[in-house]
């Protein structure tokens, strides 16, 4: 079974350690703007939302890429951007229904979570509350996550 990063929102404290760990692992900088995981803080509501690429079964970003720069590993299910092929056209950014692939101006290409390749995901390793876990997926949980992200994308904070 495919492994994914799971998020338990009730454990999140909005510390953004996941963003810092991710950006440092992939760019050598502590820069939330360069992170592949997103931690949004809504202070008025007292809500913290953490989201990352869902490694979709049938990725829209992959289908949209005119240069075949996005591939899905048949064994692991990980969806990866091949930098050498990416021309930075951002078609995949528009195609992702969850907004989890973004343009990286520092490299003029797109960037997304690849579960840290062959390593253990850095965001999970450094999450101080255990909000993030790395485990095999099950379809019901994946469906709930997709519903949750769609609700967030529409601008609602209620699921």
The total count of strands amounts to 8
* Structural class by sheet pairing and helices: alpha+beta
End-to-end Cα distance, whole Å, is 27 Å
State the low-pLDDT regions, or none: none
| Largest sheet geometry | 2 strands, antiparallel
Order of strands in the sheet with the most strands?
1-8
What would you report as the Rg, rounded to the nearest angstrom?
A: 15 Å
Which outline best applies?
Answer: globular
Mean pLDDT: 91
Share in β-strands? 15-25%
Reading the helices and strands in chain order gives EHEEHEEHEEHEH
- Per DSSP, the total helix count is 5
Question: Can you walk me through this structure?
Answer:
The chain is α+β, with helices and mostly antiparallel strands. The chain has 5 helices and 8 strands; from the N terminus they run E-H-E-E-H-E-E-H-E-E-H-E-H. It has helices at residues 17-27, 60-64, 91-95, 122-126, 139-153; strands at 3-7, 38-42, 47-51, 70-72, 79-81, 101-104, 109-112, 132-136. It has a two-stranded antiparallel sheet. Strands 2-3 form a two-stranded antiparallel sheet. It has a two-stranded antiparallel sheet with strand order 4-5. Strand 4 and strand 5 (79-81) form a beta hairpin. The longest helix is centred in the C-terminal third of the chain and has 15 residues, at 139-153. The two termini are 27 Å apart. The mean pLDDT is 91.
Key attributes of the depicted protein:
two-stranded antiparallel ribbon; 26% helix; alpha+beta; 159 residues; 21% strand
């Amino acid at each position: 079974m495919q492994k994914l990063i799971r998020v338990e929102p009730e454990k999140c404290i909005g510390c953004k350690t996941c963003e810092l760990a991710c950006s440092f692992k992939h760019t050598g900088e502590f820069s939330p703007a360069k992170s592949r995981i997103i931690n949004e803080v809504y202070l008025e509501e007292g809500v913290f939302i953490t989201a990352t690429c869902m490694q979709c079964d049938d990725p829209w970003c992959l289908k949209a890429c005119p240069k075949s720069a996005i591939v899905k590993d048949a064994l692991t299910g990980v969806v990866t951007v091949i930098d050498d092929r990416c021309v930075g056209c951002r078609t995949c950014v528009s195609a992702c229904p969850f907004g989890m692939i973004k343009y990286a101006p520092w490299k003029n290409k797109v960037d997304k979570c690849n579960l840290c390749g062959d390593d253990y995901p850095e965001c999970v390793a450094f999450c101080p509350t255990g909000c993030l876990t790395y485990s095999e997926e099950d379809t019901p949980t994946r469906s709930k996550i997709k519903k949750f992200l769609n609700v967030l994308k529409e601008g609602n904070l209620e699921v």
